[in-house]
């Protein structure tokens, strides 16, 4: 697709990946609708974008019905004005690093709601108001393909998001709307706790900058790539886990002492 002059709704715009994506899209000529919960953060981001005056802000909490409704109403109004959205990017995310036995019911519910249920509801709300051809990009995670200790509910949510995206793309075949899935590996954002950062350093896991993820996202849109994993060897292990899960389980099992060491620090 041609990003220049396109209208893009970016959910979770004020986070690390969201900000980098907004700046990359604006520099490529897109007009943005920045969706998030913090007015100050969104306003600051808007002021930093290329052609800042052509972008707009929408305050919405996607974990609430009122937030989903606000997104739908804006998309509907734009479509009626002949300014239908070309691209919807579901980028909002939430996770916590803890054993399942240490999690509260509220934490589990929040991870599933923000990472899976809300993107599904937003897609449903906007389907009738997207331009055709139009594009949906759901931001997932390598953990959607590899079950990893300490991230049980997050892995479940992102795995669900991947299958949802795939099913939706097939469901929308011949409508002119495509549904894409992008899976970053560890990324340097505020979602990572100190324990997670220390674990990644100890295990030698590579961490990408948000700008790297944004670059991959723009490539995905320009080349219309339906599914993309970022990073090596994470991309390899994601594929390997589909074919030979015992091999991946054995590799993770060698890390269990380090993983539990950092999980115990979180607990205390």
TrEMBL record:
This is Short chain dehydrogenase. The lineage of its organism: Bacteria, Pseudomonadati, Pseudomonadota, Gammaproteobacteria, Alteromonadales. Keywords: Oxidoreductase. NCBIfam families: PRK09072.1 (NF006565). SMART domains: PKS_KR. Pfam families: adh_short. Belongs to the short-chain dehydrogenases/reductases (SDR) family. Residues 6-189 form the Ketoreductase domain. InterPro entries: KR_dom, NAD(P)-bd_dom_sf, SDR_fam. SUPFAM superfamilies: NAD(P)-binding Rossmann-fold domains (SSF51735).
